[in-house]
Amino acid sequence: MSGLIRYWAAAKAAAGTAEEPYEGDVLAEVLAAAVARHGAELGAVVRRSSFLVDGAAVGRRAHADVVLPPGAVLEVLPPFAGG
Prior knowledge:
Layout: E1 2-7, H1 10-15, E2 19-23, H2 27-38, H3 40-48, E3 50-53, E4 56-57, E5 73-77
Parallel strand pairs: 1-5
Antiparallel strand pairs: 1-2, 3-4, 3-5
Helix pairs in contact: 2-3
């Protein structure tokens, strides 16, 4: 499947882009590919981040179990200061 990743705050800085398309079926696969593309700095941010899929929080679900529907928007939300 394909969709769009939106990076916020430190994730945006680490990826060097605000958004990009992805190919993949589950969250773990898509995140691994993004880290492979952008490097260890993004990997460190991703490990601290929370995620939304089409506006719904992933929460504590295993990333390998989070199936991404066609055209899904995945948002990478690192911890924000003050909140």
